[in-house]
Backbone:
């Protein structure tokens, strides 16, 4: 069978668009199928670490990235309840930027590079052939069918395709849900633009950092056992329990809390996922969600996309079998991210445990340099 594409990428977020950029530039006929019209917001802390910047530079997109006026971040501050805060220099330049702007830029650059974009379209079914795939699409202009040698799934934390592909993820209860708000800077007090801050509370932790457009992202993760308490109520709880956080939101901001739109909510599963499903590559959050506070989810998504492109390029140049290519991707993915994910899960477990949070505060009081050490160990 003749294939229209060498690689079909399902999802046009950071993982999907980055994969398309690399693959198209390496001479692969590539398409991206994205179900949303961009720009659109999604659940994300909107913190871009050095892993992201390295890939932006590698793709020669620095000028396009800087034109979005991202906010420079150089300091991390940890603010546990009941004790003083602890700050450390990141020792690298990070940025804060709205996902809507960032995703739109990447997908537009993929289109400009020669990638075919199907948008808005969803993938209803993927049929595996002996040496490729047939994808059935549905969109506002009707149905379509495309044929591709390889398929990369970059559709995010969860998708109806998880059920179609019979992944058991939809049946697992994660124990966590996440929420993102955007607040105007005028409703915040004494929040340095160069800092990303983490606040802990009862069965939750919350991150804040300034992004573009004079806006601050407030993103928190909480235990699903307390799911009956609404997101805005959880923020009010944090205001009462954490004096650091109480000093950040102004009185006007507290009064207007009920009007702040919630841009993203999700049931987040941090457990292990298969990296290869039915002969298809899983990249970004589709492969595994990294716990906040350790590493960078967007960076991990873009790094996995680059790994895929390099593996496919090597496979083409050395005429490797499909099985060898799939195995190589899975091996490189695990060797790149395994340690980072273990550290991320450990830190998350500590922050959801009262004894763990107390111990962390005591240890940092005696050894404040451990904060800098932890930040460094959660980076590539």
Residues:
């Amino acid at each position: 069978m003749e294939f229209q594409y060498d690689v079909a990428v399902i999802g046009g977020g950071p993982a999907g668009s980055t994969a398309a950029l690399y693959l198209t530039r390496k001479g692969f006929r590539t398409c991206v199928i994205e179900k949303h019209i961009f720009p659109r917001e999604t659940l994300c802390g909107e913190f871009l670490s050095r892993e992201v910047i390295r890939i932006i530079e590698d793709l020669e997109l620095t000028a396009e990235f800087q034109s979005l006026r991202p906010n420079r971040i150089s300091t991390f501050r940890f603010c546990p309840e009941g004790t003083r805060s602890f700050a450390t220099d990141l020792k690298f330049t990070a940025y804060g930027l709205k996902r809507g702007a960032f995703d739109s830029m990447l997908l537009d650059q993929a289109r400009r590079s020669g990638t075919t974009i199907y948008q808005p379209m969803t993938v209803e079914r993927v049929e595996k052939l002996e040496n490729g795939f047939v994808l059935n699409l549905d969109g506002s202009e009707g149905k379509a069918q495309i044929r591709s040698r390889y398929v990369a799934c970059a559709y995010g934390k969860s998708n109806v395709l998880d059920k179609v592909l019979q992944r058991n993820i939809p049946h697992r209860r994660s124990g966590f849900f996440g929420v993102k708000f955007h607040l105007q800077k005028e409703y915040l007090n004494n929040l340095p633009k160069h800092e990303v801050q983490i606040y802990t509370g009862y069965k939750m932790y919350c991150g804040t950092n300034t992004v573009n457009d004079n806006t601050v992202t407030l993103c928190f993760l909480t235990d699903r056992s307390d799911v009956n308490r609404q997101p805005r109520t959880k923020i009010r709880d944090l205001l009462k329990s954490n004096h650091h956080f109480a000093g950040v939101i102004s009185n006007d901001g507290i009064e207007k809390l009920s009007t702040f739109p919630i841009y993203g909510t999700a049931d987040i599963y941090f457990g292990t996922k298969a990296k290869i499903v039915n002969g298809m590559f899983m990249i970004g959050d589709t492969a595994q969600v990294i716990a906040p506070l350790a590493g960078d989810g967007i960076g991990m998504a873009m790094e996995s996309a680059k790994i895929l492109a390099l593996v496919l390029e090597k496979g083409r140049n050395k005429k490797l079998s499909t099985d060898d290519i799939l195995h190589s991707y899975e091996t490189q993915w695990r060797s790149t991210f395994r340690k980072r994910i273990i550290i991320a899960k450990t830190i998350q477990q500590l922050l959801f445990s009262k004894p763990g949070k107390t111990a962390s505060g005591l240890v940092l009081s005696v050894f404040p340099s451990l904060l800098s050490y932890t930040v460094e160990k959660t980076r590539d």
User: Anything to note?
Assistant: The mean pLDDT is 86. The two ends are 41 Å apart (CA to CA).
